[in-house]
Amino acid sequence: MQKKRFCELAFIATLSFAIVFIVLCVTGTIDSGYHFVDDHEFLEYRFISSNHLTSASELVKQWVQYDINRGRFRPLYYASRVLLTYVLGTNLVLWSILRGIVVSLSLIFLYYCGKNICGSKTSSYLFALVSMVGFQSAVWWKLGPQEDFATLLFATGFLCELVWLKNRKKGYAIGSIIIFLLMANYKESYIILLPFIAAYVIYDTFIDCDTVAEMKSEKTRLNGRRAYIWMSMIMFLVMILIVLSQVGLNSISESSEGGQSKIALCLSALKNEFATDLRWYKLTGIILIAILLTYWEKLKRLWKEIILTLVFLLPQFAIYAESGLTERYILPASVGFAMFFLLFISRAKMLCGKRKALYYAIIAMLLLLNGRSMLVEADYFRYRGNSIQTMMEESEKLMTNDDIKLVSCFSPNEESNITLKYWMLFHGIDQVYYYHEDTHKIDKEFQFDKYQQYTDSNDTELNIADADIVVMYNKDDRHYNHEPTINLSGFRMVKCGTLTMYIRDGAGLKISAITIKPSRYYR
Known about the structure:
mainly alpha, 5% strand, 6-stranded mixed beta sheet, 20 helices, single chain
């Protein structure tokens, strides 16, 4: 038996790591370079710790406070991110490998969660894949999202809970509570999974009860489990109070910018998410529900599972009501979706014959459609990263002396400037200026630069005619294809994938045509 379990673990682990790293390597995301989003933090951490002798604890404190000031509460995320930078530095390949390991482990733990619920190996691994494959697969390669590690913490804690419910060993209960506490401090949207954690204990206790009256008559079954339920709910309430006390209620208001009401925003976001990143879940979900409705009498008996699924999903839709449940934010909602349609339905053993074959064919179709979406997003991510990395490397080659000046025209998306600035500083270059679309001025200051007091930041203006290199996004960039209103006559244009470089005539700078493999799915 022990050997059989080890072989199963080895197979699932090999399969999970193979799927994840084949995607990362074949699509080229693993070594695609910087992307102007979130990964600039590695450069900032290293710059400030190396050049200004800031301790790790002080750096953690600064970034946690910075996060709170922005209306967020993710202390464990920033603590782990800063500390890992001391180990991995700015080597993005190592960061990508770490992300791949976390996602692979998430698949493994989700599989074992599924197996503990329904017993079916096939349904359990399908549950893991449906949870992690799709537009939410951005967490496989993007280096900023918190959902990858938060999902691993959820899966690990939930598995401990399931094992405790099965064998009653208190160590697993204590371990799961500790893991869930870490999860709640890693990403806010995972705090609202805690009511589901408590509800699942109640569900498991009365799993064979058909009515609420029967559950009430058997309430003594909860003896020995009440403490866990109370601990989960107390932790939930305490975390909510901490978040509210730290970041306040500044996101709650009756109207938004432009006079658009909250309700209009929410409806618009809901329409958008079901038309874009959730479209395959919507399409296949409708068909799966239609199949289940043909088993109406059996389906009615799953009222507890339906309520449990709603406890999981509705808070996720609520928290992203305005912004929309898209891309990485689909996690952890996709876990709740997969849990109902694969684990609960499989355990109920209600499917049979041709309808069962059709049901799992639809699940396979969902995976294929979401799998293609995953590859589309990964390929574009590689294309964008190659463009940014190439632009910075080519610019570095040209900036051979302090007289050569580069102007960034990424405004109003000035987060991009952080990566450019600190990457250049690490290569000994500080002649980088920033164009501001709102004022049409060019100087060395820009928004979001936390450490400008430690660098050569000043408001001395530069005339565009004195610039040697100008860089900006072009229409191949899906996110920031804003083209600034700036006169670049007298500059030669050199396309660099999703970016465009302009070289001033007469600057004496020679650059060859740049070839970057475009995204095959872009058009």
